[in-house]
Design goal:
Shape: globular
Order of helices and strands: HHHEHHEHHHHHHHEHHEHHHHHH
Oligomer: single chain
Radius of gyration: 26 Å
Number of domains: 2
Strand content: under 5%
Largest sheet: 2 strands, antiparallel
Length: 579
């Protein structure tokens, strides 16, 4: 957007200062000798203002949510719920402002970041949004049924959260690629408020799910909460839990159905808020960003099964389907047997046995994939790409949950020892988790940073290969168009070099490995996401660290582990398509 003569500053309309030209792919202007120093730092200041706003909102909300979880009696007016309701209300106002008025202005989004909002990410986000909206329906029904013992703010929460979810899903579906160049201060601040609301709602969902798991565990340990009197509760270690979460249903089947629906749909709600926060962060980072217009955009590129069919992926799909089938059987048997005292050890044995069989194979596949990457000799893809940087950051950060649990289990095993088969299996499970997560992260991160075109193996052939590459880009064949598919990139990468019209063995190997890892990670996501948590009932950690510290560690680490599996599926899907 070129400035009008006489323009002096980059204000909220998004005009560029005189003498400042945006760098392609970056949001930082180049200083002209005639400019004042303050004009150059204005874009960074706007990022700083919105960033500090989000940081303070998140810290305040975290303190309120944590206080409500650990000491609910002290916050008698439901300050955490009121704060979340206000935050969602302000976010709703900004989204309505942007969707109904701001986006209709000319020049609001002159550029599109085609790396953002990939097909798999968008479809997964919309799927989780649909389940989250259904969860709001169940929560609304349950809270209305038990409104006599629930605070007003809690009863109102699903009725505010539902429009917040729906409107945010619409915004991310249609506008996640926008690089907004007008009203930058308001836009960055509004997106940061939405991001803060997503993080705090995720944290609130984690603490509520943790309270539910604690009640279930105390019941299994022999404490009957339904028969506990108020005087006994005052002397109990779970007094706050009793006063904040126990609210018996009326004598109606609808209330029990609503409560069961909440228990089933909670994992999808937590996953939605984490994914939505990531996409909103990319939108916030893209405000005022100029994208290279030379990037071609192929609207017809979609995620289809053609990659699997044309690539001839057979072994990876077959072995992955076997992992899925065995995982479903293990999941069902565990859920049935873990509630029976006589069969509980058997339930633990099948859980650990399944993971000890699957994770070594996954580790070997990741190691083989890393070796194939080295043999392919592809250059690293350069350029500024916020989406790619965020993908890598999320993979590493989300893996910290399971890594932390594994290391804490190792320390407990060294201190206490492994008495009995269950202790030994738990220790082996922790060690293999460490190995599998590290190798899978290395494989995925190296694959994400590879350039789409392989390097020439001999220096004498580089000029000829570049000439052939230019001819292929200028006049792509029909076969290349079908194989040139990207998951997260709306802009297609350069056509891969084919040798004698045959698929290189390295491409086939990467596709087979990715297909197996995708299905395996899906099953390793399903098992903990739907309530299989043996670390709550069993393990060396509880014996060594104590119930309360270990309970906090598990409930902070496991949601991150679930998110890691889901996010790794999207990254592996991209590697499969771009192989």
């Amino acid at each position: 957007m070129n400035p009008e003569p006489g323009a002096t500053d980059a204000d909220s309309s998004g005009a560029t200062p005189v003498g400042v030209e945006p760098v392609q792919g970056w949001d930082h202007p180049i200083q002209d000798p005639g400019l004042e120093p303050g004009q150059v730092w204005a874009p960074r200041g706007r990022h700083l203002i919105s960033g500090l706003l989000g940081l303070n909102v998140v810290l305040l909300g975290t303190a309120l949510v944590a206080g409500q979880a650990f000491n609910p009696e002290a916050l008698r007016h439901q300050e955490s719920q009121v704060f979340l309701l206000l935050l969602m209300g302000v976010s709703l106002i900004w989204m309505l402002w942007y969707l109904l008025w701001a986006r209709k202005q000319a020049g609001i989004s002159p550029h599109k970041d085609h790396h953002a909002g990939g097909m798999v990410v968008t479809v997964a986000l919309m799927l989780f949004a649909a389940f989250s909206l259904l969860l709001c329906v169940f929560r609304g029904g349950y809270l209305i049924s038990t409104r006599g013992c629930k605070p007003t703010a809690t009863v109102l929460s699903p009725f505010i959260e539902a429009p917040f979810l729906g409107l945010q899903s619409f915004l991310l579906w249609f506008h996640s690629k926008d690089c907004i160049h007008r009203h930058k201060i308001i836009t960055r601040s509004g997106l940061m408020l939405i991001l803060s609301a997503d993080l705090l709602l995720w944290l609130n969902a984690v603490t509520e799910d943790s309270i539910h798991q604690e009640i279930e565990l105390e019941k299994q340990d022999g404490l009957s909460f339904s028969n506990t009197t108020s005087s006994e509760a005052e002397n109990s270690d779970v007094e706050g839990v009793l006063n904040s979460t126990l609210c018996p249903c009326a004598a109606s089947s609808a209330c029990y159905a609503f409560r069961k629906g909440i228990e089933i749909l909670y994992p999808f709600n937590m996953e939605f808020y984490l994914m939505a926060a990531c996409v909103v962060y990319v939108m916030w980072n893209n405000v005022g960003r100029s994208v290279n217009p030379a990037h071609p955009h192929h609207a017809a590129q979609k995620l289809t099964l053609k990659v699997v069919y044309q690539g001839g992926v057979v072994y990876g799909l077959a072995s992955g389907a076997l992992v899925l089938a065995a995982g479903v059987a293990v999941f069902v048997l565990y859920q049935v047997w873990v509630g029976q005292q006589r069969l509980r050890p058997t339930a633990f044995l099948i859980f650990y046995g399944y993971h000890l069989a699957v994770m070594p194979v996954m580790s070997l596949c990741c190691l083989a994939g890393v070796l194939v990457h080295r043999l392919e000799r592809r250059a690293e893809e350069g350029g500024h790409n916020p989406t790619r940087s965020l993908d890598v950051t999320l993979l590493v950060a989300a893996a910290l949950g399971q890594l932390a649990l594994s290391y804490f289990s190792l320390v407990a095993a060294l201190a206490v020892g492994t008495d009995g088969p269950i202790g030994s299996l738990d220790l082996s499970y922790s060690v293999l988790s460490l190995l599998e997560l590290i190798l899978q992260n290395i494989f995925i991160i190296e694959g994400l940073h590879r350039h789409p075109s392989p390097l020439a193996k001999k220096k004498g052939r580089r000029r000829r290969d570049m000439f052939q590459l230019k001819k292929k880009v200028a006049a792509p064949t029909k076969e290349e168009k079908t194989t040139n598919i990207s998951l997260l990139d709306g802009a297609a990468p350069h056509a891969a070099i084919e040798h004698d019209g045959k698929t290189p063995w390295t491409k086939r190997a990467i596709q087979e490995i990715c297909a197996f890892l995708i299905l395996s990670n899906v099953m390793l996501w399903v098992i903990p996401a739907f309530g299989v948590h043996p670390q709550f009932e069993n393990g060396l950690g509880k014996q060594f660290f104590g119930f309360s510290p270990w309970f906090v560690l598990v409930n902070l680490g496991q949601p991150l582990g679930v998110f890691y599996r889901m996010h790794s599926v999207g990254a592996l899907m991209e590697l499969l398509i771009a192989a």
